């Protein structure tokens, strides 16, 4: 199952995403949560220690490659998903794995 949560700012997307992630884990499924916000808060919402969250790595451009398939340019992972998870995922409480797409790494960098 793949699920995306989108909406306007301040609508509760992060809270809903964290609650859904934990609920789906409680049903016995593996969950990989991906925070795409430039000011990510899904880690803390999942109960992740701030120091562990701050030490995490953003997904880099090196994980994707452009390929041409049937005359169309597409993106795909440049490495196996397990390698991406080993290099970038943070294990959050409740057995949720978290990937962060972007975050400010310096003041004014958000």
Question: Can you put this structure into words, describing what you see?
Answer:
The chain is an alpha+beta fold and 110 residues long. The chain has one domain. Helices cover 28% and strands 23% of the residues. It has helices spanning 13-26, 42-45, 50-54, 81-88, and strands at residues 31-35, 64-69, 72-77, 90-92, 96-100.
Can you give me a brief rundown of this structure?
The chain is α+β, with helices and mostly antiparallel strands and 110 residues long. The chain has helices spanning 13-26, 42-45, 50-54, 81-88, and strands at 31-35, 64-69, 72-77, 90-92, 96-100. The relative contact order is 0.22.
Features:
28% helix; 5 strands; two-stranded antiparallel sheet; 23% strand; 110 residues; single chain; alpha+beta
Strand content: 15-25%
Report the helical percentage.
25-40%
Gross geometry: globular
Poorly predicted parts: none
Spatial gap, N to C terminus? 31 Å
Derived from helix and strand composition plus strand pairing, the structural class reads alpha+beta
């Amino acid at each position: 199952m793949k699920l995306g949560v989108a909406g306007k700012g301040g609508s509760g997307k992060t809270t809903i995403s964290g609650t859904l992630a934990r609920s789906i884990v409680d049903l016995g499924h593996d969950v990989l949560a991906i925070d795409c916000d430039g000011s990510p808060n899904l880690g803390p919402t999942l109960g992740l220690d701030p120091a562990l969250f701050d030490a995490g790595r953003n997904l880099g451009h090196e994980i994707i490659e452009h390929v041409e398939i049937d005359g169309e340019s597409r993106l795909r992972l440049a490495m196996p998903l397990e390698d991406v998870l080993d290099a970038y995922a943070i294990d959050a409480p409740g057995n949720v794995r978290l990937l962060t797409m972007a975050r400010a790494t310096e003041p004014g960098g958000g």
